[in-house]
Amino acid sequence: MIDQIEQIRRAAATEIEAASDLQALDITRVKYLARKGAIANLFDNLKTISATDRPAMGKALNELRQSVQSLFDQKKASLDLAAMPQQTSYDLTLPGRMRWIGSKHPITQTIDEIKRIFIGMGFQVATGPEIEDDYHNFEALNFPPDHPARDMQDTFFITDKILLRTHTSPVQIRVMENQKPPVRVIIPGRVYRNEAISARSYCLFHQVEGLYVDKGVTFSELKGTLLTFARQFYGSSIKYRFRPSFFPFTEPSAEMDITCYLCSGKGCRVCKQTGWLEILGCGMVHPNVFKNVNYDPEEVTGYAFGMGIERITMLRYGVDDIRTLFENDTRFLKQFR
Ligand code: DAH
Q1: Does one domain contain both 49 and 118?
Q2: Of 2, 5, 256, 288, most Cβ neighbours within 10 A?
Q3: What burial letters (b/e) apply to 124-160, b meaning 16+ CB within 10 Å?
Q4: How far apart are the first and last CA of the chain?
């Protein structure tokens, strides 16, 4: 029997070593280790051995089984590993993939700067819907029913009474409807107009609106606030002027000009040789507007202003076609980092 054990040990070792895949290996398991395998067979033969030799034989058989089992386990582990999908190996010296850092859109940069200045003067930031109703966009702002701004040509109507807001002024109404005086807000946002698209005008653009309502607010406060803004935004050396103007929702109304900062007032193509650039519209809130939001015009006064963002952004960064601000071509946007 000792001979048989040695024979099986050697044969099993050779066959296990030779198994080239898991299937081949399993054949050796069946042959040697399974319940009807060669080793089990030898255990069965123990009965035929004399009682004196039996313990030693039993011990030798146990050792055989253990050693074959452990050869089998080792081989199985190495075949399992080989059968796993090929592991990726990492080249730690390879330079990392470049990550592009985004940048704020130039329009956002301009709005952020305007916000910063007005927040510094005690204004809060308010917003409102871009899809508006006729009431907030026109009627409550004292536009007469036949006002040309309501013309189909300028306004994108969604239905008879629902439209894309043509300015940020309707948010004045919404703020006052929801809040008692004092009110001191700026309102940045997108506005829409049905205009022919060209290098100078686009169907959507941005405005920042301002509104201050309290007891005893005066026109000179309006001037002082806007001048403080303009000096911070355009530079402390600018000259300015207020020209009388007309808006349905303010009385009196004005437009503010500053010296053209491209030609310093000498006259150039951008300021159309006048030396002046118009930067905003403004005025004292019309009593009818106050009545529409249940404010008492005998008790409070206020000023409002509104400015377009695209033109000043274009002047600031030397952009000559408004459409580039809306195409979001990253080659263009990258320049404003
Ligand atoms: N809403 C005006 C426009 O789109 C701009 C404007 C003018 C706003 C005067 C105001 C203001 O608040 O007082 O042209």
Answers
A1: no
A2: 256
A3: eebebeeebbbebbbbbbbbeeeeebbeeeebeeeee
A4: 87
How many domains, the chain? Answer: 2
Helical H segments across 235-334, by residue range? 287-292, 309-317, 324-327, 330-333
For residue 141, report the distance from its CA to the centre of ligand 1, in Å: 10
Amino acid occupying residue 32 = Y
The angle at the Cα of 163, spanning 162 to 167, to the nearest 5 degrees, equals 135
- Are both 163 and 263 inside the same structural domain? yes
Q: What is the DSSP code string of 82-131?
A: HHSPPPP---TTSPPPPPPP----HHHHHHHHHHHHHHHTT-EE----SE
* Residue after which a domain boundary falls, among 37, 62, 79: 79
Strands (E) across 129-249 are located at 131-133, 162-164, 183-192, 204-214, 240-247
| 124-144 residue pLDDT tens | 999 999 999 999 999 999 998
DSSP 231-245: HHHH-TT--EEEEEE
Please name the residue whose Cα sits nearest to atom 2 of ligand 1: 306
Q: Is the peptide bond before 182 cis (omega within 30 degrees of 0)?
A: yes
Q: How far is the CA of 308 from the centre of ligand 1 (A)?
A: 9
**pTM score:** 0.72
Minimal-distance CA residue to ligand 1 atom 4: 167
Assess whether 12 and 123 both reside in one domain.
no
The answer as to whether 86 is a domain residue is no
Judged on CB neighbours under 10 Å (0-12, 13-18, 19+), 260 is buried
Helix (H) or strand (E) holding 253: strand 250-259
Q: What is the pLDDT of residue 1?
A: 79
143-153 residue pLDDT tens: 988 888 777 67
Low-confidence stretches of the chain (pLDDT beneath 50) = none
Per-residue tokens: 201: 């005008």
